[in-house]
Structures are given as C-alpha cells and as structure tokens.
Amino acid sequence: MLIIGEKINATRKPIAAALADRNATAIERIASEQVAAGADRIDVNGGDADASREADNLVWLIQCVHNACDAEVCVDTARPDAARRALLVAGEQAMLNSISLESDRIESMLPVVEEFGCCVVALLMSDAGFPRDVDSRLRNAEALIDKLTGVGRSVDEIFIDPCLFPVAAGAETWGQALKAIRAIRRQWPEVHLVGGISNVSHGLPKRRFINIAATVQAIEAGMDSAIIDPGETDMMAMIRAAEALAGRDEMCMGYVKAASEGRLG
Amino acid sequence: MLIIGEKINATRKPIAAALADRNATAIERIASEQVAAGADRIDVNGGDADASREADNLVWLIQCVHNACDAEVCVDTARPDAARRALLVAGEQAMLNSISLESDRIESMLPVVEEFGCCVVALLMSDAGFPRDVDSRLRNAEALIDKLTGVGRSVDEIFIDPCLFPVAAGAETWGQALKAIRAIRRQWPEVHLVGGISNVSHGLPKRRFINIAATVQAIEAGMDSAIIDPGETDMMAMIRAAEALAGRDEMCMGYVKAASEGRLG
Fold this sequence. Notes:
The structure is a homodimer.
Chain A: E1 2-9, H1 13-21, H2 24-36, E2 41-45, H3 54-68, E3 72-76, H4 80-90, E4 95-100, H5 103-116, E5 119-123, H6 134-150, E6 158-161, H7 173-187, E7 192-195, H8 207-221, E8 225-228, H9 233-245, H10 253-260
Parallel strand pairs in A: 1-2, 1-8, 2-3, 3-4, 4-5, 5-6, 6-7, 7-8
Helix pairs in contact in A: 2-3, 3-4, 4-5, 6-7, 7-8, 8-9, 9-10
C-alpha cells in the first residue's frame, strides 16, 4: 500500500498561512510528521487565488519537503506551467497529480507527462462528465491507459483514481465504485488504484467511520494506494489490518511489527 | 444487520460468577446494556464444568434476559437436552446456536430444530473437519440447508456460519472465506450469514482492528448478522458505516440518526 500524505495542501488554512509567510519550519515539520506516521510520498498543492503564484509556491513547498525528509513528492496541480516548474525541481521519481480524460486537461498535461516521464494520477472523468457506472469507468480507464502508454509510461506508472462519489447520493453509488475497482484490477493487474476516499462521506456526520470502512473495502477490491492524512491513526491501523487480511503482509509480520512498535495506536 | 449480543456467555468470568451466585441483577444489567447498545438478540451460553447444570443455567439466564428486556434470546449450546429445556422457556421466536454437519451434532440437534421450529445457526464443519475452501463450504451449506428445510425450516430461518479461520494461519485464509460468503449469498439470497469474526484475529496483537476490518469486508460480501459485543462502540459504528455503504440504509438515514443520537461514539 502506497500512502501519499495529503496534508501539504494550500486549500488547508495552516498551509496557506505557511505559504504566505514562507514559513519553511512549519512545512518541514508537517512533511516529517507525515513520513514518521507512515507516508511513502508527500503530496504538495500550492493553489493560490493569484494563479501566477502557484508555480513559485510549488517549487518552495518541494524544497521544504526535500529539506525535511527523503520521501518523493506528488506534484498536485491542474496547470501545466506550474507542473513543469515543479517537476524540474522535484526529482526523477516525482509523481504528477493529475491528468484526466477531459480534452483541455489531456491536451495540456499529456505533453508534461511525456517530457518528464513521471508516474501520474489519472482521474476517470471525461468531457462527458464523471463516470458513474462500471462500464464508463472501464472505457475511460482504457482510453487513459492508451494515451499514457502512448507517451511512454508503463502501466505500473499509472495511478487510476476511479472517481468516488458521496454514498449519501444514492444506494448504488458505492457498490458501483467497488465493482469498477474490481474490474480495473482484473483487467490491468499492474496498474495502481488510488482513491479520493473522503469524497465518499461527503454530507454525512462522523465522516471518519465511512472513510475508514470505504478504504477497508476498497483495499479488498484492489485499491493499492491512498491519498490520506497518515496522522489519522485509526485509518492507518485499519489499512494495515486490511493489508494483513488481503494476504499482502506475509504471515502478518508487518501488522505484528507495527503493533509492537506502538504504531497501531 | 442482525446484532446478536455475545456477552452472556459462561466462559466469561463475570458471567460464570453471576451464574454461581444466581446474581440476577448482574445478568439483567448486561442484557439491558447490550440492547441499549444495539443488540437485536441476546446470546445465552450456560456451559458448566458439571454438564448436568447447563440446562438449569440456561433456563435461569433466559428468565433474567426476559426480565430485563424484550429482545429474543439465542440459545447457545451443543447439548440437545439443554437446548430442549431452554427452548421450552425461551419463547417462539428464540434461535438455536448451533447445529453442524458433524454426524453426532446433526443427529442429536436436528430433532430439536424440528420439534421447536426455531431459527438456527448452522456451522459448516462436517465429519471431514473444517471446510477451508469455497467449494467445500458450498457443499456443506447445501447439505445443511437440505437437512434443515427437510424438517420444515425456511431458508430465511437459517443462519450460516461459514467457519472463519485466523488470518495469521495463511495468506489465502481470509480471501477464501470472503469468496465463500459471496458464493453462499449468491446461491441462497434469503439465507442469513453470521460470522464468528473474532476467530480471524486469533494469535495477532491489537485484534480489534483485524476484527473490525474483517467485519466491514464481510458485510460487503453479504454477511447480514454478527455475534459481537455491541458495547464495542467502534465496531458498532463501523458496522453502521458498512451498512450505509452497502445501500441497505436508505439515504443513510440510519447512520445520520445514530450520529445525531450520539450512538457513533
């Protein structure tokens, strides 16, 4: 399970404040804490009301992360110019978050993926909107994988986000998403599947129970990566439990080790 | 989801002590607490080192439960004489826990099921031992359902326990169990599926994370009943979350109501 720490995101107030003040200590501390809590990568989002500042924000955030830890970054932007500037400093193993099948997004971002040869998060929405059933998700996944392998990415460098919707929107919502995850996993055993799980609990109280239950079920269905706050210890413990159940943790030794080191809360 | 409260079990020290002293107040309090926490039924187990006392124990426990609450009991014994005595006082809606396909068990318990016409937990073990793969579980389920419908039970009065094993015993253990749950649910849409989930975490530390993750996945696969301690608030909250995700909770209103009443912790 690849854990991508989500906290360094400029839509969060403490990050926006640290960005405004160029408070490197604050960003470095959050990067270190996420790695200590189990993050394999650190997502960096430098969105700004003044779009011209996003690239500078990203470059500065990446430098902070590099100062603080060895984890690779995940460059989180929809703007190709900002993505280019960020990927220039982010290192060869950096990842781009994200591309989609919408024509403006694919036309502007696919050349960036080709130029930097990076791993990429691929969202399944297209000009037709969000895919809600299994077939449209499979069609969009196939189209995106075709495009991305066409510019030199291998299937295992692609992180499909299957587009998860609020369960409060309808009884079939989550069942369709799980079926899509299973179908994608079956059709492309090497592709990665990453979920924007927190969307599932949108509009509900006590969201963490829904988020954790959805994650535990998605892992069983084939999800192998998550963009989350690794400081949420119950979520991390349940991810480790789900990995043990999935047989991806030989003899449950990872789970036992995490428990003995006090990392299961 | 039918929640069967597991706490009134003589293998637990406080229950054995209350049984020895015939401390009705203690048993009645535990019954009431389980119902308040969300139990639909109350399991009663009166096992005793002196087997001749089990029937008396069960009758007394059932009277305590009846004094304390309106929940039906689940008579938990492998002894036909004790089951008969208990079912005589337990009421028409009582349930029997359990029968299996082992010849001594089926020969001795099937007449009890026929006589009382009760709902019954059916364990999938047979004279060949515990079923470990999907096919042997399906075969045993079919044989048990045949036997039980042969004495007048309808499929929806049967609670299949698919025999869950410790995940620490092997990487495929839990995957096989989930596949079996899905296969049984597909073949008999009306049968109930109930799990001895705590066995899954046997031998591991921090068992509750494994138990909760397994329950959340089993509900997605088709489990619709659990024998648990409803006082474990995280487990209950995650069961409600899994039901919301499964679309069994229209517009998530049950989840929202539980949250607003402070029942999600």
